[in-house]
Amino acid sequence: MKTEIYIGTILLERNRWTRDKKPTCLVSEWIPRFKEAGFDGMELWENHAALASSTELKALEESSFPVSVFNSYATFDDAGQAAREQAARLTSLLKARAVKFNLGNNVNDKDLYIESALKWKQQLPPGTRLLCECHAGTIMEDPKVAQEIFAVWEDEAFQAIIHPFTTDLKALREWFTCLGPRITHAHVQLRDTSGTMQRLERQPEAVKNALRLMKEEGFSGSFTLEFTEGTRAPSESMEQLFTSAVADLRFLREHWT
Fold it and tell me: Residue 205, Cβ neighbours under 10 Å: how many?
């Protein structure tokens, strides 16, 4: 079965980390290029839909190119309820098969996060996969805490996202030890020792070692190209980012066999 590799639309977005996070591109205009490059779908950054015009939203809704993952940044405290409801509506409208989310960073609110996510699941379309990003700066950055939370989330619709190329092999192995088959998706980004984003081909052996470990651990999930060479660079441009993303796609296709 072919492994699905998605383009993260946040990869192209210059305003991904600005205060207002106002989109600067129309994803619908990029879809023909996503298809031509060979991506299997997209992980759609929430504001490319939530802050889109009605015309753009309609174009995304009617496109034959799938929103494989809806990338939500709704919080799981009480203040995030409206954002979670909006994310559920957009997930349904765009027929996304999965929704990505992040928990907060307050360990004292762990039970609140868990319960809010369970309630959110009831608002999402039946069959939606809930992909919790095991992200630095959240309580899910600790594999053992993540293991405890997934034990409460007994429903297998709750699944995990890892970052296999920004961690060492020992830590990567621990993720699989703790979460095993609940890991079904990987966010792709690679950095050098200074934190600068790089194409996968810049560190081929490190990337191939991580891929081999994932194979050994039975990973059979999907990938999203989240960031790539040129991200945050002073000369950052969408064209350069897309060129790097296509290079990363080809590297993964070649070495994930």
Answer: 7
